[in-house]
Specification:
Length: about 270
């Protein structure tokens, strides 16, 4: 709806209605593939009869020049769907690739990489799927499936203790209570209040290590804020359970993937 609108005027004016073709979707850099079924769905929405042959599957390590899929059918359909299919495939593969790189750095540690809610509106389900393809785990999907008490909640509730007590009184008994803190004082407050998960926000590795000692396995420990490939191992060494990385989705670089037209057949040039 967004891209095609009332019609692809360029394709409709330059491509014969009866032209058929093959389009090769291929990688232009190395990475981890995610979203091949989404690209397929884009073309099938435009024409249920189109043929989409995947040559790689989600989770595959791909390299420059790898053929990922071949699309066969009406040339108009392939050209009209090309950009949307590639946009989604590139973004999802970029997320999977970034996640896989962080996971590779954390080999040998108990720490798991998780995502955040910092996703593009409307694409959260696909982006969080791409994180899993890259070997990461999903944090809560939305405001409805997890309690995460942050600084503004704490201010309005009147402190960590009261915020946790209110959450415990209202949330389902099956739902864990997570509290975000910014220092060791907050760690102690969250622990005494009975938090199930304590998120250490923008704390340096030395303070994180001290926080892990204070918690002493009485709650899960998560770190967030300023995490990059340069420092992720330092946080893992501190002994945390989870590292949440907003950059997996909010500012990830899309993987370079393209589509090239190959054979073209036209039954008639009369239009």
């Amino acid at each position: 709806m967004e891209d095609v609108g009332t019609g692809d005027v360029t394709t409709l004016s330059t491509v014969p209605a009866d032209a058929t073709t093959e389009g090769y979707i291929y990688a232009k850099e190395n990475g981890v593939l995610a979203g091949i079924f989404v690209a397929q769905r884009v073309f099938q929405i435009l024409d249920p009869g189109i043929t989409f042959e995947d040559r790689k599957v989600d989770g595959d390590q791909i390299v420059d020049a790898d053929i990922l899929a071949v699309v066969l059918g009406p040339a108009r359909t392939i050209l009209t769907g090309e950009r949307v299919a590639l946009n989604l495939l590139q973004r999802m593969s970029g997320i999977a690739t970034r996640t896989a790189r962080l996971n590779e750095l954390l080999k040998g540690y108990k720490t798991e990489v998780v995502d955040t809610r910092k996703t593009l509106p409307g694409l959260r389900m696909l982006e969080k799927y791409a994180v899993r393809v890259g070997g990461g785990k999903n944090h809560r999907f939305g405001l409805y499936d997890g309690v995460l008490i942050k600084d503004n909640h704490i201010k309005i509730a009147g402190g960590v203790k009261s915020a946790v007590a209110l959450a415990k009184a209202e949330a389902p008994h099956t739902m864990k209570i997570e509290v975000e803190v910014e220092n060791l004082v907050g760690v102690n407050e969250a622990l005494k209040a009975g938090a199930d998960i304590i998120m250490l926000d923008n704390m340096d590795p030395a303070d994180v290590q001290e926080a892990v000692k204070i918690v002493n396995r009485r709650a899960l420990v998560e770190v967030s804020g300023g995490i990059s490939e340069d420092n992720v191992v330092e946080y893992a060494k501190a002994g945390v359970d989870l590292i949440s990385v907003g950059a997996l989705t909010h500012s990830v670089k899309a993987l370079d993937i393209s589509l090239d037209i190959q054979k073209i057949k036209v039954r008639s040039v009369t239009r």
